[in-house]
Design a protein that fits this description.
Length: about 325
């Protein structure tokens, strides 16, 4: 079941990461932006978000309910689509044709919702494979779906011919978080292996890069407009930037009680950080090395996902069973 020799394209372990940044700044206090809270069904525990570019609706995975949810862009009404007995959807991604895909951690399938008809189908993994603990997924420029299994798997589904191909390797243990890279690449984190995986969909190969030792168990992953890679670590209370050529830049948050979780890199080069420890949404400006508080997170648990919407930012709180919306404007300084 090898996938185009994916397991043969490993890079060598990299030199030790650079020392942490020594000086970070916090600007003067600003008025926090208002937050709209959308309450979900109890025990939804949203794990992923996806924006439907056609109508602006927000979809989320509710693994404990065995369902996907949809939030209407205009009314904010929430509806649910149940995926069947024992289903546990976890990751979400839209393909270029408008279809929505979801991984399933227990059924060893991908769920697909047709973008035109709404028909729900399942794409099964090869029958000779064990449970792959499917988690993150992303579509490439050709509409193929690349997915990760936390048990150490990387796979591809091609909707043109219905083929499912997979490969496994020790460097893929803990695969889950993912983000788009430069030139069509896709980044995955493999937290159990302490690696970052850069997938080249065109060649069907990946490179494996060592995470900083203290960043095992990364909580957030994002790529910026120039291809820069960001990773967060709640345990280390820091974010790290992949500087290329075998080095990482580690930036500690200026508050000792912070716990950086989900990340969102924006087109203006700033990075949005969900600080689960202080329950506040932060903006980091790399050019000035400045952290700003922009909105409250409210009570809850782990912020597992954050996306751009038509009018701002949405983030999913798996502990609070809700999704919150933040408007797209800068807070006013006092």
């Amino acid at each position: 079941m090898s996938l185009f020799g994916l397991a043969t394209a490993l890079s060598q372990s990299l030199p030790p990461p650079a020392a942490p940044a020594t000086v970070v700044s916090v600007p003067k206090k600003a008025e926090l932006l208002p937050v709209t809270e959308i309450e979900l069904m109890a025990n939804s525990q949203p794990s992923a978000l996806a924006l439907d570019a056609r109508d602006g609706s927000i979809w989320f995975a509710a693994p404990s309910l065995g369902a996907l949810g949809r939030i209407d862009a205009e009314t904010l009404k929430v509806t649910y689509l149940y995926l069947g007995k024992r289903a546990k959807p976890f990751g979400l991604a839209f393909s270029p044709d408008g279809a929505l895909y979801a991984t399933d951690k227990t059924l060893n399938v991908l769920h697909r919702i047709d973008g035109t008809t709404g028909e729900l189908t399942r794409i099964a993994m090869p029958s000779d494979l064990p449970t792959m603990d499917l988690s993150g997924l992303r579509s490439d420029g050709l509409g193929r779906i690349w997915f990760a299994g936390s048990a150490g798997w990387l796979g591809r589904f091609d909707p043109q011919n219905g083929a499912v191909e997979v490969s496994s390797h020790d460097d893929l243990q803990g695969m889950g978080l993912n983000a788009p890279g430069e030139a069509g690449a896709i980044w995955f984190s493999a937290w159990k292996a302490g690696r970052m995986i850069r997938l080249d969909p065109q060649r069907g190969r990946f490179d494996s890069t060592a995470l900083p030792e203290s960043f095992r168990g990364a909580r957030g992953l994002a790529t910026g407009p120039k291809g820069e890679l960001w990773v967060s670590s709640a345990k280390t209370n820091a974010i790290a930037r992949w500087a290329g050529r075998g080095s990482w830049q580690i930036i500690p948050l200026p508050w000792p009680e912070s716990q950086p979780q989900a990340l969102l890199a924006r087109a203006d080069g700033t990075l949005i950080i969900a600080d689960g420890g202080r329950r506040v949404l932060l903006r980091y400006r790399p050019e000035k090395n400045v952290f700003e508080e922009i909105a409250p997170l409210g009570e809850g648990g782990i912020i597992r996902a954050m996306i751009e919407t038509r009018s701002g930012i949405a983030f999913a709180d798996s502990g609070g069973d809700d999704i919150r919306l933040v408007p797209d404007r800068r807070p006013v300084e006092n």
